[in-house]
Amino acid sequence: MTLGDATPNAVRRPWAFAAVCVMVVTLPPMMFALGGSVIGLLLAYIAVYLLIGVCIFGPARKFPSLRQAVGFLLPGVLLTPLALLDLGYWAGGWLLGLPAWGLLLSRWTRENPLRVLQVLKFLGLLALGLVVFTVNQLYPLPSLGLFLLPVIPLIRLAYPEYRARPLQAAVEILLAVATVWIAFVIPTPEGLWSSAWTLAGGAATVGLMIAFWARGIPSRSRRLLLREGPIG
């Protein structure tokens, strides 16, 4: 989940934590706007999708392969029409797992194919995450995950390899703090009983859970990454 050292032969890894923060800070306003302008919601969805894509594929400083780009964008394209049917909740639900999905795709090369079992595990975790996110709106205990966001990059500062990437550390700390702050200042529309911080907290817990799973790299993949980098 970290960007590689700033040396010519270093592995530049996705900024997955930053991608989770982007997802968390934007999901509540999008859900509050489900009954508003479809065009505005669509533009916001595209912007969030692209920002998460930049966090995942941008650190490698090269364009993703065609299969990676199609695999990343196609689910969002297929889910977008649901907003026209007033079922935008499912398109937003996909965003919960998008950082983790991007992590899986970032390792997809000819030598290291994306395995069916990995996809099934991801879909299973995403389904579990949707249940947790939904239940969280009734019993908001998972919302406490929101307060983990500023803590995680601060803990990672204890590791020299993370401190060696000051740009990433600064961006992630600022994003985490801003996410918590924004979650509490966004007003809750009348008639809704789920506040922005509750939605953001549930999204943070689910997003971190799935991304933490996706962060694990099989040993064979790690050897390939060290030789070729994370994106083929």
Description:
This protein is mainly alpha-helical and 232 residues long. The protein has 11 helices and no strands. The chain has helices at 16-32, 38-57, 66-79, 81-84, 88-106, 116-136, 148-156, 160-163, 166-185, 196-215, 219-228. The radius of gyration is 17 Å and the shape is globular. It starts with 15 loop residues before the first helix and ends with a helix. Residues 1-10 and 219-232 have low confidence and may be disordered.
Keywords:
globular; 232 residues
The total beta strand count reads 0
Structural class, by secondary structure, is: mainly alpha
The helical percent reads 55-70%
Largest sheet: none
- How do the helices and strands follow one another from N- to C-terminus? HHHHHHHHHHH
Q: What's the overall average pLDDT, rounded?
A: 82
Number of helices: 11
Measured between the Cα atoms of the first and last residue, the distance is 17 Å
Estimate the global geometry from the Cα principal axes: globular
Topology, element by element:
Blueprint: H1 16-32, H2 38-57, H3 66-79, H4 81-84, H5 88-106, H6 116-136, H7 148-156, H8 160-163, H9 166-185, H10 196-215, H11 219-228
Helix pairs in contact: 1-2, 1-5, 1-9, 1-10, 2-5, 3-5, 5-6, 5-10, 6-10, 7-9, 9-10
